[in-house]
Amino acid sequence: MRNCWNRLFLEERPSIGLAFFRIFAALTVGFHVLPLFFRMDENYLHIAFKTLNYNFFTPEVITLVQKSPDWLAWVFAGLFCLSWFCFLVGLASQLSCILMTATCYYFYALNSFYVGTLSWDILLVTLFLMCLTPYHGDYFSVDCLRRGDVFAYRRQRPFFIQRLLQLQIGFTYLYTGLYKISAEGNWISGNPIYFLMHYPPAGVTKYFLLRDFLAQQPQLCYGLGIGILACEIFLVFLLFYPPARITAIYLGFIFHVTLILTLDVPAIFFFLFPPQLLLFIDPRGVIAWVEKKRVYNQPARRSRIIYDGNCGFCRRSLNQLKIMDIFDVFTPVDFHGLYDPAQRHPQLTKKAVISQLYLIEPDGRLYGGFHAFRRMCFSLPMCYPLIPVMYFPGMGVIGPWAYRWVAQNRYLFHANTVCRNNACFR
């Protein structure tokens, strides 16, 4: 029994999947909470129409929260925005998750009119699990860049948080299916999908492509209902059965996309649940795939980054780039170790490499300065969110100017004032 418990919950595995899930959890919370702050007067201030959820909070908690003045609601709104952004980028990820979750509970107790749904309750349980450990900040985060571990993507952690999240999503499906056939459900004795097709479009269902057709097919609607019921009940068993796991994940994705397209359901079903299904993918297999990619990118296939090795700021930046370079596609080359930079590329000169960083791709294409950094973003998964920013209108002018300023003053970016004259570059 002890060995089984250790294998299921305490065995150490890579935490990269949990780090990936952190991003989607943050986006889900932000998508639901941030828009409410644009109308604080209608949602959370003392003049707002409020609905109180006594099924989730005790009367004492709700009474205490309702006494809070308007300025405190604004303080919590600012605290949420700060902690949410830190959680999204992985800065002090556990602390930021705790603060963000606490503010979510505060606003939920203050007014549950817009977020008082079962899916929101499920999201809060998910956030509570994420608050327990800092494992989700091991990669895809600012925390991993601050630690300086080049192999942060391999970091091993006890598997219990990921396992609990798996159990949560699996049993959510199971209990939903059981509820539909319990004393309050009629999915076997009745034909709820057929009746849903006759509801007003602005109600529970959307006016999707096949709605009119299904409204005339009661037998087909009943069959679809039984299929959905079977999917919800048996999906948890398929997810935990390794040979059927990938099929179950695809089935879950199709199920949620269908819900979004046909029914007026909370967007949490789309933003959170599909990424949570990806937690069933064994992270050891993900790391094995990454290692194969790194082996494939032999030196001949890697791009060369020509940089100034006498610049402490540059070396520190290159170390952070190595952390982000999960597929090992870049090879840094200190131009001080080159007799002639033209040996690397005909267009390179000593004056050119001193002025800015250069990127030489395997096919010989050359990029310099801001354009080199913009090109590198396509090969660094952690920099993917920056790609739209890099190509935003006006960045073709602002980006090179900002890069030139940083490059010209790179020897001044030292905490030690002695280093301002580059005396301690070694």
Structure characterization notes:
The protein has 426 residues and is mainly α. It has three domains: 1-157, no CATH class; 159-265, no CATH class; 298-421, Glutaredoxin (3-Layer(aba) Sandwich). Helix content is 55%, strand content 5%. The protein contains 21 helices and six strands. It has helices at 2-10, 16-33, 40-43, 59-66, 70-89, 93-110, 118-130, 142-147, 160-181, 192-196, 211-214, 218-239, 245-262, 268-271, 273-277, 283-296, 312-324, 350-355, 370-376, 387-390, 395-408; strands spanning 12-14, 156-158, 303-307, 330-334, 358-360, 366-368. The strands form two sheets. Strands 4-3-5-6 form a four-stranded mixed beta sheet, covered by helices on one side. Strands 1-2 form a two-stranded antiparallel sheet. Strand 3 (303-307), helix 17 and strand 4 form a beta-alpha-beta unit. Helix 5 (70-89) packs antiparallel against helix 6 (93-110), helix 6 packs antiparallel against helix 7 and helix 9 (160-181) runs antiparallel to helix 12 (218-239). The model has no long low-confidence stretch (mean pLDDT 86).
